[in-house]
């Protein structure tokens, strides 16, 4: 029997090179000294920028928190305490503060070296025609019977007198005195018992927060003293400046006083009493300035109050909670 040759039938077409084939070719190429194929590149994924990374106050979900009665009580007390301190700071911020300082200077240089004086005194046992005001100082001023800007008001049916005067003195040591020296005829026994209603220097300050000796002799009563005695009031005048919020300055004077009472005889042996006001000026000036707390200081105080209160309350609440949890564990251990 002979062998025949069969005709070739339709077989599978040429196979496509798969990954394995490609790998084999690459290996073969490498082994056979062929050209190396370039490696495949990988694309990196860029993360978008998230601004929330800067949040230092990370939020905790409510499901992870545990409210307690102690924490509620501390929270309410904390809020009330903050409210109280806030209202106190707000009151201090709205109100004006008066600050005083001392310095050596003549504050009122535009006054021409003069000080305005206001005197109001009653002599219930001396006739008005006998009452006069005399002014002397170390600059050589010697004025007897000063009558400018003065007024005499009769008292006790003309038996007494009330003297009101507004005059100026030089800013040098000196004195002014109420006496009978300017009377045309000197009385035999002049009665110098008196009551001082007012003695002030400079402008009048109507400020409630400033308590000074602007009218230190107000209400001085010498009605029970010796009728023929002279009275010496020794005054130390202190310049005072008051500056309000608008920067306007007012000039006034405070004074301290010491007094003595004695019987004085003239060169003829007669008793001629008088009421002396001997004054000298202090080189120290007192300045009162109205100020209001600056806004930045108020905000700083409020932040300190809120932050400090919440911090202390948080520490206290944490300590109480930790102690209560520890106590519960101790009780459970005892029960077992």
Give the helices and strands, then pairings.
Blueprint: H1 19-31, H2 69-94, E1 97-104, E2 114-123, E3 132-137, E4 142-143, E5 150-155, E6 160-170, E7 174-179, E8 195-202, E9 220-221, E10 230-243, E11 249-262, E12 275-281, E13 284-291, H3 295-335
Parallel strand pairs: 10-12, 10-13
Antiparallel strand pairs: 1-13, 2-6, 2-8, 3-4, 3-7, 5-6, 7-12, 8-9, 8-11, 10-11
Can you give a write-up of this model?
The structure is a single chain. Helices cover 24% and strands 30% of the residues. The chain is elongated and about 115 Å long. The protein has helices spanning 19-31, 69-94, 295-335; strands spanning 97-104, 114-123, 132-137, 142-143, 150-155, 160-170, 174-179, 195-202, 220-221, 230-243, 249-262, 275-281, 284-291. With 336 residues, it is an alpha+beta fold.
């Amino acid at each position: 029997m002979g062998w025949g040759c069969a005709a070739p039938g339709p077989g599978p077409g040429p196979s496509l090179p798969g990954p394995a084939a490609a790998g084999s070719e690459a290996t073969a190429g490498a082994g056979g000294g062929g050209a190396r194929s370039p490696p495949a590149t990988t694309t990196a994924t860029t993360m978008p920028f998230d601004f929330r990374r800067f949040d230092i106050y990370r939020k905790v979900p409510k499901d992870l928190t545990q409210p307690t009665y102690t924490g509620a009580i501390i929270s309410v007390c904390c809020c009330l305490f903050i409210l109280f301190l806030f209202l106190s700071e707000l009151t201090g911020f709205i109100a004006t503060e008066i600050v005083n300082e001392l310095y050596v200077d003549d504050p009122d240089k535009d006054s021409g070296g003069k000080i305005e004086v206001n005197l109001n005194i009653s002599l219930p046992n001396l006739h008005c025609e006998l009452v006069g005001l005399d002014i002397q100082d170390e600059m050589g001023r010697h004025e007897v019977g000063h009558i400018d800007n003065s007024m005499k008001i009769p008292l006790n049916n003309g038996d007494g007198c009330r003297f009101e005067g507004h005059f100026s003195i030089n800013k040098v040591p000196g004195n002014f005195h109420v006496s009978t020296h300017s009377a045309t005829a000197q009385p035999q026994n002049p009665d110098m018992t008196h009551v001082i209603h007012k003695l002030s220097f400079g402008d009048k300050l109507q400020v409630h927060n400033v308590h000074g000796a602007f009218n230190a002799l107000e209400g001085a009563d010498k009605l029970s003293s010796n009728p023929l005695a002279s009275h010496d009031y020794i005054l130390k005048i202190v310049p005072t400046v008051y500056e309000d919020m608008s920067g306007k300055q007012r000039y006034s004077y405070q004074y301290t006083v010491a007094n003595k009472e004695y019987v004085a005889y003239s060169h003829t042996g007669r008793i001629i009493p008088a009421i002396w006001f001997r004054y000298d000026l202090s080189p120290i000036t007192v300045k009162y300035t109205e100020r209001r707390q600056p806004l930045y200081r108020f905000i700083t105080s409020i932040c300190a109050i809120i932050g400090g209160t919440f911090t202390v309350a948080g520490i206290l609440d944490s300590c109480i909670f930790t102690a209560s949890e520890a106590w519960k564990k101790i009780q459970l251990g005892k029960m077992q």
